[in-house]
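Single Protein Entry

Contents — chain, fold
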Amino acid sequence: MLSAANSRQEHILVCLSSSPSNARIILTAARMAAAFQGHLTALYVETPDSSAMTEEDRNRLSANTRLAKKLGANVETVQGDNVPYQIAEFARLWGATKIVLGRSAAGKQRFFRKTTLVDRLIAIAPNIDIHIIPDSTSNHKYHQQKTKNKLPAFSLREAAKCALILLAASLINMVFYSLGLTDASIIMVYILGVLVTAIVTDHQVYSIVSSVLSVILFNFIFTEPRFSLNAFDAGYPITFAVMFLAAYITGSLAIRLKNNAHQSAQAAYRTRILFDTDQLLNRAESHNEIISILAGQLIKLLNRDIVIYPIESGSLCEAMPFPADEHKAESIVLTDKDRTIAEWVAQNNRCAGATTDMFSDSSSLYLAICINRRVYGVVGITMNGGKLDSFESSVLLSMLSEGALALENEKNAREKEAASLLAKNEQLRANLLRAISHDLRTPLTSISGNASILLSEGSSFDESTRQQLYTNIHNESIWLINLVENLLYVTRIEDGRMNLNPSVELIDEIIDEALGHINRRGRECTIVVKKEKDYTLVRADARLIVQVLINLIDNALKYTPQNSDIHISVREQNKLVHVSVQDNGPGIPDSEKEKIFEMFYTGVSHTADSNRSLGLGLSLCRSIINAHGGTITVFDNKPTGSIFEFTLPSEEVSIHE
């Protein structure tokens, strides 16, 4: 039985940096994770000083990040200037049980030296094991470049801001001096000016210069003797020193807060892009729409040209370029080498191209759009704008995972739809076979039986008997012909092969053509055609509309009593032609009015399309009318009977004299 200590899976957290010894730390952490059979996470804390890293440090950080991924670590990036706090909070939120650091990160405790990172981590997260890996290399010589060491180029605009603020502070102080206010009030105005300078300028050097100039101006204008750099009061040197330190500290804090605000705004923007990507991908309905959304969001994040190679049926498709600037679509030039790199990435599920060890001479970075080790595409990112920072890389990988998940869901949906269609087709075949085997047996038996009687004993029958047998054979064969026609049309609809050939037709001619094919089966019914206009034009496929009318009229004939009328009416309204077939049969219950248009539905009683029928006629009618952009409905005919009505687009009559 496992002990309580071993029942919880270990989660090893290793810190990434640009230190030369960091690779050894990562390897040690990976061995620990393997030994404990736990998870490994590599964390990089991006501080405001990260932007000042040298090219060598950036390359080393990228190499360490790739090593961590290769060893199976989940690479994460957080932002903040308090490194111990960020590490401790990440470990707490992600459930890390051990933190692995190098000796350089731990630091050495000396007199008059600030508390080490390890000491601060222990104070913040006392319940997490912290492992310090010794380093035998000369790592103590490594120092990461700080942002403050990088002096900016002189900017006349920034210098003008600084001068104007000092001038305004001096003018205000001159007013205060004339009013007899104390030196403390004047000093506070200058400190306020340094604070404003730190806020409106882009670098700390301007707040430092402002601090020095504030001390000089205060000494020159407001201390005795005035308008000289001498000071009679013995306490003024201390006043100047305190004033400078107060101004400097205030300006430094303002710069730091501004940098943190900028960093937080940037992180919030990137996080918002990631959130929007998830929402947009969830609403996407097609493969190409997912690709387009993913590319658009990547452009928002990186502001670089994007190329995506989708993968279909295991093969790399043609490249889909997405320029960052829509007006410069020609800026994306793809070569055979680009496709070769994309194919390598798709096969190996690894990144390649610029900033990597594989195909490093390429101008683009290629990454796989994958999830669960299944690759759904390859994305290429132009690297002309420089390398991606750690936080950009982290968000990028998350977005690619979201895109891969959306593509996988879309693929599963398509497969499910195909399986559903296959099951539907199988059900259709089963219903057809069952219906045909049952419903075709009666007319075929009747035809074969009557034909056998005529062959064996036809000469002994009188003329009226023979005519009756002939009529029965003819009626049953006509019924079979109509059934086969419906089956053929249904098959074409199910296979998507029913192509419309619409043209401008006279509805009168279509009705006449349908009446010529009607089999009344010996019933004495009168068909009356009523129309509002002499010429009514519709845009339709006449062959298909004839079949619709044949089915509707044949249904009316089945259930209309003998010696009664069937009315066919035509009217035009709102650019639609309404054609209705009206009978005075038993009618259709309200509960079955919608169901009768479903395939193979024959009803529970003797209603339309159910008397020795497969239930295909009305379903076929609806499919044909819907394909024309019209509708078909059924409603009651008072006092008895039903009215089937369908609509078709009308056409204007043009008369040329």
About this structure: Confidence is low (pLDDT under 50) at residues 1-7, 605-612. Residues 103 and 135 are 6 Å apart (CA to CA). The radius of gyration is 43 Å. The chain is about 50% helix and 15% strand.
